[in-house]
Design a protein that fits this description.
single chain; alpha/beta; 6-stranded mixed β-sheet
């Protein structure tokens, strides 16, 4: 008997092969159409989604603003026969009511060992009995969610340690199955070469390596969250992970007669897959509504500010970055602002629509205003300065921001003061100038700085913000804050000033 397992993860609501700007080889419809045909070649199929399904695209943004009782994206996966759903961290972004409404039709398929108080399911594992061959699927979610999410969005919920949860159920899993799958919405925090060298600060955000270090009983580790392409064997365990937005997925085949297990990472761009018209038709009316919504003009700039080269924009500054920083300061009243530019950024044309905003800022970040000293501000800028390196006189991105995964979002650009970075100096001593209103930043003086909630709380990357006093919070999605800014000012003059130099 041959059993095929399909893993999707971090689909982020990308249903159609587009980002609503141009056609792209990605999305749930492409993957679903492939699976529908491919699974016919096997005796049995098992389909697992490892989370971050209902947030991250123009479609999910639109759905979040409607009073949905059912989520068409989740319903699609249910109807094509998904057997298991794991909850991701971004599932909480729109609040518990939205999360529960989205998943209530598949609550019997949710597997969850470590989200205590989750109303839909606290079933830690499920045994799939396939003609006597028993596959156990244990599921866990990164416990780091309270470090990013606003408390209201996980009220009454506790995130337990996946290590403790697996230990609790390991003997049951071993005694009742032929094969154990750990489906974990979290990633690998250590190298995959068998040496287990830490590749990031060990905060508990990603614990796949630690799980495998502690337990040898896991046959397949389906990981997620980091958006990496992984298809490796670590000792005797198959370890997988896929890119975001439905660019790739995993196919695993088990031959129960020979006990042979093979795994493949399939990229949608290589499939040449035609979408099943029946699946596409399901979203026809919704897509029309979304297109009309996205084309709504909300404001006007004095000129176009396209982002044509993201590397140069990050290195030299850009009017688009100035605009976002000014929006943050206007909304918060802070002295200073800091933000990263997402890889999806394309800038704005003169006439700005909702589509433009959601493409450039696809995440539902809120804002926090922190009080920090000048010395802590310098520490933060030094962290950002480590993003660049010089090789043979040429400025490049430092490898630590590219491996094991690309982390351009952990490079911040600052506004409200002038600063200068010298890349010829050692990391930690590169900031050679910081001035506000013509005077040096006072290392002992307190300043208010506005950041998105991810940066303000993810202090493993920016420890200078640890224990900083929270002066205020703006609990609106950044996309709504940008829309409000245009509604307030209507016509906005482009700011072309350059407040930092990196040399």
């Amino acid at each position: 008997m041959k059993i095929v397992i399909y893993e999707t993860s971090d689909l982020h609501g990308f249903v159609n092969p587009t980002d609503y700007v141009k056609y792209q080889e990605l999305g749930i419809l492409k993957i679903a159409s492939f699976i529908e045909e491919d699974e016919k070649n096997y005796d049995y199929s098992l389909k697992i989604d490892c989370g971050d399904l209902i947030q991250g695209s123009a479609m999910t943004n639109y759905l979040s603003k409607t009073d949905i009782k059912e989520n068409p994206i989740v319903n699609l996966l249910r109807d094509i026969g998904y057997d298991a759903f794991i909850i991701g961290n971004h599932e909480f972004n729109y609040g518990l009511n939205y999360l529960y409404n989205s998943y209530r039709n598949v609550k019997d398929k949710i597997i969850n060992s470590n989200i205590k108080g989750f109303k839909l399911s606290e079933k830690p594992y499920k045994i799939f009995d396939i003609n006597g061959y028993k596959i156990a699927v244990f599921a866990a979610t990164t416990k780091f969610i309270p470090n990013w999410e606003i408390p209201e969005n996980y009220k009454g919920i506790e995130f337990l340690d996946p290590i403790d949860c697996y230990e609790k159920y390991e003997s049951e899993l071993l005694g009742n199955s032929n094969l154990i799958i750990c489906a974990y919405h979290g990633g690998f925090e250590k190298s995959l070469d068998g040496k287990n060298t830490p590749t990031e600060t060990l905060t508990g955000e990603n614990q796949a390596s630690e799980i495998l270090e502690n337990f040898s009983s896991i046959d397949i580790m389906l990981s997620a969250h980091q958006h990496r392409k992984i298809n490796e064997r670590i000792n005797n365990t198959i370890c997988t992970q896929v890119e975001n937005n439905g660019k790739s997925f995993i196919k695993i085949v088990i031959d129960t007669d020979t006990n042979e297990i093979t795994s493949d990472l399939l990229e949608v761009c290589d499939l040449n897959q035609t979408i099943d018209p029946k699946l596409e038709e399901r979203f026809k009316d919704l897509n029309e509504k979304i297109e009309n919504y996205l084309d709504t003009k909300i404001g006007e700039l004095s000129e176009d500010i396209p982002v044509e080269d993201k590397f140069l924009a990050r290195l030299n500054g850009h009017p688009f970055i100035n605009f976002l920083n000014k929006v943050q300061i206007d909304a918060s009243g802070a002295d200073l602002s800091a933000l990263s530019m997402f890889d999806s950024a394309i800038g704005f044309k003169k006439d700005v629509t909702i589509r433009d905003i959601l493409i450039n800022y696809p995440y539902p970040n809120t804002l926090k205003v922190l009080e920090i000293t000048g010395s802590k501000l310098k520490e933060a800028v030094e962290k950002s300065a480590s993003y660049f390196t010089k090789y043979l006189g040429k400025i490049e991105i430092d490898e630590s921001f590219l491996k094991p995964k690309v982390e351009n979002y952990n490079y911040d650009m600052y506004y409200g003061f002038n600063y200068e970075i010298d890349l010829d100096k050692p990391v930690g001593s590169r900031v050679v100038k910081m001035e506000k209103d013509g005077s040096p930043i006072d290392m002992d003086k307190n300043y208010s700085i506005v950041l998105n909630n991810y940066r303000a709380t993810n202090v493993s990357k920016y420890p200078s913000y640890k224990d900083a006093k929270i002066l205020r919070e703006i609990n609106l999605d950044m996309s709504e804050i940008i829309i409000n800014y245009f509604e307030k000012y209507k016509k906005v003059k482009v700011d072309k000033t350059k407040n930092y130099i990196i040399k």
